Amino acid sequence: MSEQRAPIREVFLFWGEDRESVNRNLRNLIARLEGESGMPAQRFRADEDPADDVVAICQALSMGGTQLVVVEDISNYKAADVAPIVEYLDAPNPGTCLALTSVDKPSPKLLAACESAGLVRQFGPDPKAKTRDRQKWLNEHAAKELGRHGARAEAAAVRELVTRVVVDRPDAHKSGVNALELSSAAGLLAAYAGAEPVTEAMVREIVPAHPDARAYLLADALVGGDDAAVHDLLAELASGSDPANPMAIQGALSRHFQGLAAAQRLSPRPSPAEVSEATGIRGYPAQKLAEQAGRIPHETVTGIVARIAALELELRVSAFAQLGRTRDDGQRFVLEIAARDLLALTA
Description:
Layout (H helix, E strand, L loop, with lengths): L10 E5 L3 H19 L4 E4 L5 H9 L7 E6 L10 H6 L7 E7 L5 H10 L1 E4 L8 H18 L6 H11 L4 H6 L1 H17 L6 H7 L4 H13 L3 H12 L7 H21 L5 H8 L4 H10 L4 H20 L9 H20 L1
Parallel strand pairs: 1-4, 1-5, 2-3, 3-4
Helix pairs in contact: 5-6, 5-8, 6-9, 10-11, 10-12, 11-16, 12-13, 12-14, 12-15, 13-14, 15-16
């Protein structure tokens, strides 16, 4: 006897720091409903589309099967903005399935309305979890993602993976970058290991320490013109038991701002999906590009791209790069000069 599928509810809310699980559940729901009704999902973003517009679509009569309406990043609505959706959920249209996603915990009223009218699923640790509890969840998440890709892993390898990937900053937790990066790295490790167990040595060989992940934060600070944050991050990247090479930092920044320039050429406020389609950049990096596109003029981004391109040559051949007791000393000095110039561009 075939297993009976769970009924479609009037509303689904998938939220939490584990963006990969949130996205996977949303993809499964979209695939099921599009397959059953033959109608494509209608997709909205809370930072672009008013809740009134979403509700109007939800209330419309469907000429086929159940219509699916998706709203991503619902926590971007303020309490007053989300009121139409809360009111709609008092008597939702049975011909519509409303799917909501969020990294942050939704407002209490929206959460209660979704629990009453449909299904709520949280993925990830409690947003207010203590450092020890969050670390425990990250280790469990890394192990689970390795297992999902068919890999076996030593406990030391899981700990090393988390150490190399995770950015220990509150804004990284809120954006879900840590969980996404762990999911991505787990897939790479599983493919590399094959039938062998993933070892600590494999993690060190395959997974770079996270200059790219920290570069998202550095790019945010540059876009915001935050001098103190830029220099604090550069100091962080230069220190620790596994410091980031200046050339790796330059490469990460170059990729990010070239992607930002491409995103801005699409429209003043492109969606992450549009960024992904145009650039091939997906997941959290595409989300960051979409967020930053409207925060800084395109002319400024063009200047930043040019300055970062010049930085590569300076790191290789500049006389300043030869200063200090080691080559890294000189290169970090060159990087600090470039950071000063980049901040001047955003001033």
